[in-house]
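Hi C.,

You asked whether I'd gotten around to modeling the 270-residue construct. I have! Everything is below, sequence then structure, no commentary in between.
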Amino acid sequence: MNLGQVGGIQMDLREFMDMKKLQKIQDDFSNATGLAAIAVGKDGEYLTEGSNFTEFCMKYTRGSTEGNRRCIKCDNECKGTYFCHAGLMDFSVDIIVNGERMGAVIGGQVLPNEPDEEKFRQTAKELGIEPDSYIQALRKVPVSTEKKIRASAELLGVIVNQLVNLEFFKYNNAGKLDSVKDNIKQSGELVQTINEKTGYLKGIAKKQTILSLNATIEAARSGEAGVGFAVVAKSMQDLSNQSAGIYNDIEKSVEQITQLINSMTSLFDE
């Protein structure tokens, strides 16, 4: 297995990358642009299935011993957007994680303009390929502008590197993220407990209000003898009203905190 080194640790791209996601992006890119594409490891081994590969390249050029040797040389040595040994335009975009090269996305297999068939007949002879069959396959190769090829390759590189680095971050911080998630869950449970206790205290405040109201009525019935009792009843009522206001404020704050915790928790479930 090919290993890249990330942060001093030997690691293979497939250890943390969801290859199905990478394959889908690659396939969608090829369908949209008409360019071939495949992801390779640090030493050139294929990591995904080839997308939109041409018969010209796979059956004929790479199908010959000399052609395959030249193709491997191009894959390993050429960078950016370039013309391969057979005359097609290809690209190679490095996959970088924490400053370390983990592989690349290579592809292309298109012509920037209409081909000179005689030149390709000569190439076929050099590679030991039957010229007429080679030219028939050549006529099926897509033609695109060099500007579009370069722009498409750069876009694919940006998308793939963003995806790979996101997957690596999630992999590298999985334990930390789980710990944060657990702490958020515990905070939510604590807030729920506070909310329940606040509700209980609000119930006591209501009972205080009823008690003070009854005391006020009894004080009124007692005339002058109940004046002192009326003062106590009023104090109880004021205290009850203040407590109820505080508990309502606590409930509102708890509700806001609960919404925030639920929002944070949902991020981990996506």
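If it helps when you're writing up: The chain has two domains: 4-172, 175-269.

Thanks,
B.
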